[in-house]
Specification:
- The complex is a heterodimer of chains A (529) and B (419).
- In chain A, the strands form 6 sheets. Chain A has a 5-stranded antiparallel beta sheet. A 4-stranded mixed beta sheet of chain A has the order 1-2-4-3. In chain A, strands 15-16-14-17 form a 4-stranded antiparallel beta sheet.
- Chain A is an alpha+beta fold.
- Helices cover 36% and strands 18% of the residues of chain A.
- Chain B folds into 3 domains: 114 residues, Orthogonal Bundle (Fumarate Reductase Iron-sulfur Protein, Chain B, domain 2), CATH 1.10.1060; 149 residues, no CATH class; 130 residues, Rossmann fold (3-Layer(aba) Sandwich).
- Chain B is 45% helix and 8% strand.
- The longest helix of chain B has 18 residues.
- The chains are: A alpha+beta (529), B alpha/beta (419).
């Protein structure tokens, strides 16, 4: 195409979008586009990011349907994002790229009796949590912070503080509504049946929801979710969090009658995991976590200086290594709480756990642990070096980390420095009463090209290792299936067929999930974009 | 298990020893979106969870703090030019510089995005990228030393008929700085007059500069006109030193922040207290007694520049401000019942009048104020009370435009009624 033709096509698409949404909801201004061009991630540091060509503000499912129909008419790519934290997932890297910014789709509705909420893409966890708590209900808090989109997080790897009890978030999706890449509207679960509402997630019969949510979502490459119902859980706490103090020194004291935290350490990770098995078998607690020391440090510090002081003095390394945290909560009655407490104390004693000191407890619980019911200081992980890296994030059994973490430590060690200290980051995060767990090794990365290039090398080593072992990891899942599929039962071949049938022109977030262009050329394409 | 003790720390001092760097703060924005929301611990409803008026009104990410940081970075690195973007000035100036995003960002990222945005504005002005509406105001400021394009000679008229010392001729312990809006807006004169009456009733030795009073320069600073700010800071320091006053007492939150935070940054020193601090202190020492009943349910609006923007930032320390004195005063007034809005203190929603928005984008300014009025009405309060004339005026205009019935007061007006 000549430059003139390109400009004409741009103008044609722009006018089409304005016809659908109104001029105030469409922009191709370079400054507006620039604000959708990057994120925190090391990938963006290396690629420099990319501006889309149009930003639009749809206000409804019908608006999105019209945009998608227009995309099919003029063959332009499109994607949508929630809060904007993970931009590499929906990144404008092709001509005429249209990015949907869902700020106008911010409605939340709660069905108190049936314990679920219907959310549009721009509803945050903090908003839903606040509305739910008023009604004695609760939604999990994601590790990235409750400024995140409920809808996006439920579709993309939502690990919540309460996941031990409330599950991995994709399992909590009920009825959902999608705009498919061909412009059709799809309703899943009970919503597929007229007048049935949102109350049920799967079926009846074959359900496509599994395809969209999978283990880590489908990045909008198979369809755009416009409404999602998510499960809510009983909340025994107050209607709003009883906070004290001024940001960033806030604390929250929850009633001892309703919430009791226990923190206890073990000499080894293996012993900590064994104790967690015992706690899970007895079905104790609302929260069960085994955080790495660096997480304690980065969440607790109110500034970079405080972090560096605590870290170099090894405060959290000394007192929270192999630390298991349990929150017992009066979900049903005080008697139940007393029973759980008694059993937990016996388990701690039998497994040789050491309860942390009062100082450590007081430094942690009111300022951070109680925060897990509303928020997490997730974004604080970026303060330490400006960026963040990972070489291992695996979904498997609770004891898998004992064998899968050491090789990951070796990879991280090989690249340290420039990777920043992480004290063998060994996060173990149980879900669904221990039917599975996430294990994770991540670390701070200085936000400069040299460190991020090192992270890219480590990521490739890590994915190659995981593919060889057959691990399903964050890195292998977020890499395009066209490059990793051969290691996972040739999944890319099936996915390519599905993608082709739903999205014949490869318009829905085409740089992610699967690189159809690369497959047509007979290659897998790059591991990372 | 392999044990690694690398002691590998960041090589850049920026991450280890605190210092502020314009580009690094923009570069390190992680786009976490916290800047769009109040402290998430404090969210009490979906309706009033937002913290940024600009993002709330204009929706596109460019109008949020994180979007503005992306744009700042692109400008610094030469990836975006002024000529390319017709929207650039609107994006940078449709912001109240209220600092709400800054609080949320400090909480999660320990960055100072408001400083980045103010630096960009200063650069825009330096490069001749200015708004016509601001130019008119700044031209007036240069000529008449006030933000309202009024004659400097009329500045002291609000105090006509009051028995008060003129500091250009007489000595007093304290100078009352009315500020531009209270000086020239007749509708607000009762607030300034009430301030003087309340202070004098407690025996405070106070005077005014009258026609010689000048704008503090704070608003010019926020609009990016640094030279004007430095000029006024210099003139005010000299004039107040010459007057021989111990301290300035002001009713204007803009002035309070300028004297307290911006002047020291410019190497100037003017001791200042806000009138609510003075009154609270006088109440505690028994010199002001609030005896008369004022039967009213009120909610208090924290002005940004009396609250979160009124103290220099110390990393990790609470983002403190004058939050309690006005509340303590209201609680002490017989008959007044104080009910809180959802967004208060360091995470209060802005009134919409700051940062040059009122001057250049009056519709956006009223939209922002109307949002606050809705929040105030949701408490069931009969009145919204504040401690800044800019907030009060904007609220009054928003209430009038919407035909609302809620009343708008300055704290000092209620104090005077209770004396």
């Amino acid at each position: 195409m000549t430059e003139t033709n390109i400009a004409e096509m741009h103008e044609t698409i722009y006018k089409g979008l304005v016809d659908v949404l109104g001029a105030e909801n469409v922009s191709d201004d370079p400054a507006v586009l620039q604000s959708y061009s990057r994120d925190y991630n090391w990938r963006t540091v290396l690629t420099g990011g990319a501006r889309p060509e149009f930003i639009v503000l749809p206000g409804s499912t019908e608006d999105i349907q019209q945009i998608v129909k227009l995309a099919n008419r003029y063959k332009f790519p499109y994607s949508i994002f929630g809060s904007g934290f993970h931009m590499p997932l929906p990144r404008g890297g092709k001509r005429y790229w249209c990015m949907m910014s869902p700020q106008r789709m911010n409605k939340v509705e709660i069905d108190e009796q049936n314990m679920y909420a219907i959310v549009e893409p721009y509803v945050t966890f903090a908003q839903l949590s606040a509305e739910a708590m008023k009604r004695g209900l609760h939604v999990g808090t994601p590790i990235c912070g409750s400024q995140a989109s409920v809808l996006a997080n439920h579709l993309f790897m939502g690990y919540h503080s309460t996941s031990y009890r409330t599950g991995y978030s994709p399992a909590n999706i009920l009825g959902s509504q999608w705009v498919l890449p061909n412009g059709e509207i799809l309703r899943t679960g009970s919503l597929a049946n007229p007048k049935c509402g949102y109350f049920w997630g799967e079926g009846p019969g074959l359900s496509l929801i599994g395809l969209f949510k999978a283990l880590a979502g489908s990045f909008g490459a198979l369809g755009t979710a416009t409404k999602l119902a998510v499960k809510l859980f009983p909340w025994p706490g107050p209607q709003s969090l009883p906070t004290e103090g001024i940001t960033p020194s806030k604390k929250c004291e929850l009633s001892d009658d309703k919430f009791r935290w226990y923190m206890f350490t073990y000499p080894t990770l293996e012993k900590a995991i064994n104790a967690m098995y015992e706690i899970g078998k007895a079905e104790l607690g609302l929260v069960l976590l085994k955080w790495p020391t660096i997480w304690f440090a980065w969440y607790a510090a109110k500034s970079r200086e405080e972090y560096m002081k605590d870290w170099t003095e090894e405060y959290w390394q000394k007192y929270t290594k192999n630390c298991v945290e349990v929150c017992i909560s009066a979900l049903s009655s005080r008697k139940q709480m007393q029973y759980e407490e008694k059993v937990l104390m016996e388990i701690i004693q039998e497994t040789g756990g050491q309860i942390v000191s009062k100082d450590v407890y007081r430094k942690w619980v009111p300022f951070n642990a109680n925060n897990r019911f509303r928020d997490s200081y997730g974004p604080r992980f970026n303060r330490i070096g400006g960026a963040f890296g990972e070489v291992h994030l695996v979904w498997d059994s609770l004891d898998d980390p004992l064998s899968s973490l050491p090789p990951a430590f070796e990879i991280a060690d090989k690249h340290t420095p420039p990777f920043i200290d992480h004290d063998n980051c060994d996060n173990v995060w149980p879900v669904h009463l221990l039917t599975g767990a996430l294990s994770e090794l991540d670390f701070p990365v200085e936000k400069n090209v040299e460190s991020c290039e090192e992270q890219a090398k480590a990521a490739i080593e890590s994915v190659e290792h995981d593919m060889k072992k057959g691990y399903l990891t964050w890195l292998s899942i977020t890499a395009p299936l066209s490059s990793t599929g051969p290691a996972y039962s040739n999944l890319h071949l099936i996915m390519a067929k599905i993608k082709k049938s739903l999205d014949p022109y490869n318009l829905a977030n085409p740089t992610r999930l699967i690189d159809m262009d690369a497959m047509e050329k007979g290659s897998g394409g790059a591991l990372f974009h | 298990m392999i044990q690694i003790k690398t002691k590998s720390l960041p090589s850049d001092d920026y991450y280890r020893k605190y210092y502020w760097d314009f580009r690094k703060d923009a570069w390190n924005c992680s786009r976490c979106a916290c800047c769009k929301w109040i402290d998430t611990w404090e969210v009490k409803s979906a309706r009033f969870a937002g913290t940024c008026p600009s993002s709330g009104r204009y929706k596109f990410d460019a109008y949020s703090c994180q979007g503005r940081l992306d744009i700042a970075l692109a400008l610094i690195d030469g990836k975006l030019s002024y000529e390319e973007s017709p929207k650039l000035l609107d994006i940078y100036y449709q912001c109240d510089t209220c600092g709400a995003c800054d609080v949320s960002c400090k909480r999660s990222q320990d960055l100072q995005p408001l400083n980045v945005m103010l630096e960009v504005r200063a650069k825009l002005v330096k490069d001749g990228q200015i708004l016509p509406a601001h130019k008119a105001v700044i031209d007036g400021l240069k000529k008449e030393n006030n933000m309202l394009q009024k004659s400097a000679a009329d500045r002291g008229k609000w105090a006509k008929g009051m028995n008060i010392k003129n500091l250009t001729k007489e000595k007093a312990e304290f100078a009352y700085h009315a500020g531009c809006l209270l000086s020239f807006d007749e509708g607000l004169w009762p607030v300034a007059r009430a301030g003087i009456e309340v202070l004098k009733s407690a025996g405070v030795d106070i005077g005014i500069m009258g026609a010689s009073e000048m704008c503090c320069g704070g608003r010019a600073y926020d609009m990016g006109y640094r030279d004007e700010f430095y000029r006024l800071a210099d003139l005010n320091e000299k004039a107040l030193k010459k007057a021989g006053v111990k301290e300035v007492i002001t009713s204007c939150a803009d002035g309070y922040r300028a004297f307290k935070v911006l002047y020291p940054e410019a190497g100037k020193q003017v001791e200042v207290q806000h009138i609510v601090e003075s009154v609270y202190s006088l109440m505690k020492s028994g010199k002001i007694k609030l005896n008369k009943e004022v039967p009213l349910t009120v909610t208090y609006h924290d002005p940004c520049r009396l609250g979160r923007l009124s103290k220099p930032y110390v990393p990790g320390e609470p983002i403190d401000g004058v939050y309690e004195p006005p509340r303590e005063i209201l609680r002490a007034i017989p008959g007044v019942k104080l009910v809180e809005m959802e967004r208060i203190k360091e995470y209060a929603w802005c009134c919409g009048a700051g940062g040059g928005v009122k001057e250049a984008y009056p519709d956006f300014s009223i939209w922002t104020a109307s949002e606050r009025i809705e929040e105030a009405k949701a408490t069931g309060a009969e009145a919204i009370v504040t401690a800044c004339p800019w907030c009060e005026k904007n609220f009054k205009e928003a209430v009038a435009q919407k035909g609302d019935k809620i009343k708008v007061y300055d704290v000092i007006e209620l104090v005077k009624a209770a004396l």
